Amino acid sequence: xxxxxxxxxxxxxxxxxxxxxxxxxxxxxxxxxxxxxxxxxxxxxxxxxxxxxxxxxxxxxxxxxxxxxxxxxxxxxxxxxxxxxxxxxxxxxxxxxxxxxxxxxxxxxxxxxxxxxxxxxxxxxxxxxxxxxxxxxxxxxxxxxxxxxxxxxxxxxxxxxxxxxxxx
Length: 168
Description:
Layout: H1 6-18, H2 30-35, E1 41-50, E2 58-71, E3 74-88, E4 97-98, H3 102-109, H4 133-145, H5 149-167
Antiparallel strand pairs: 1-2, 2-3, 3-4
């Protein structure tokens, strides 16, 4: 149903992974903003746990932003958002290790070209079915797989199609 929080949830994931800020006024919950007094500092964060992660362990991605309520229904951002990524092996007593370069880790496992394809937002995906998007999708998949299988499969298919047509 509308108002169920689907887009808010997707916006939170996009902000956590890519740093994409939500639409104006969608960062803070209205509940938190309404119950706070002017001047109150409010911390907003999204924590995403991947288990298993790409190395069969657990990775925790966390992005946090601080705000100050400055009006009845308004706030201002204080400073820059912080991003941390921690990893741990999936074994009893394993320690959590902070990643030295969280932005690099995110670009490696969640390339920017995937931004529009794994977080489908029905309200924003009007261009998804357009033909020119096909190349973007293929590029994102190639980037993740680090393999140019699509081109070799496409070449083989064209060769087979040519052979079939010659036989016909």
